[in-house]
Amino acid sequence: MTGGTSLPPSARRTFEQLMLEPLGDPADLERAVAQYATSFAVDVASNDFIDPDQVEALRAGCVELLGLWEEVVTDEERRLIQAAVQFFLLEGDGEDDRGIGGFDDDILVFNDVASQLGHAELCITFE
């Protein structure tokens, strides 16, 4: 299990690098997600490129993925979760999160991981 072939090349490379990181503490990751999402609250007022709905969907989705930490069986599955969360936490992960479409790659990575873990119901969609 690694970043799916549907990911853009830069996102795939970053994700594969994140998969090599040692497993961390899911509680620390959850705190980091909350802080990162909060950091966009001020910027939304002055940056039309930031979609607050995407930020919130990714924040909530990351929390849901981290909630699966104890449920999943293998360390590789935990690495998938961790890498998806860490990808969200990287502002320059292939696309600048504060630029046009900045969270598009984060959503692709998140959806790929949710699907690989058998939790497609967590996938983020916008119409």
Strand and helix layout:
Elements: H1 9-18, H2 26-44, H3 52-67, H4 75-89, H5 104-116
Q: What would you note in describing this structure?
A:
This protein has 5 helices and no strands. It has 127 residues and is mostly helical. The chain has one domain. Helix 1 packs across helix 4 (75-89). The mean pLDDT is 89.
Keywords:
127 residues; mainly alpha
Q: What is the makeup of the main sheet?
A: none
Nearest-integer average pLDDT: 89
- Which runs of at least 5 residues are low in confidence (pLDDT < 50)? none
Please count the helical segments.
5
Rounded to an integer in angstroms, the radius of gyration calculated over CA atoms is 14 Å
* Classification by helices and strands: mainly alpha
Give the strand content.
Answer: under 5%
Number of strands: 0
Helix percent band: 55-70%
Give the helices and strands as they follow along the chain: HHHHH
> CA-to-CA gap between the ends?
29 Å
- Coarse shape: globular
Please sum up the structure shown.
57% of the residues lie in helices and 0% in strands. The chain is an all-alpha fold and 127 residues long.
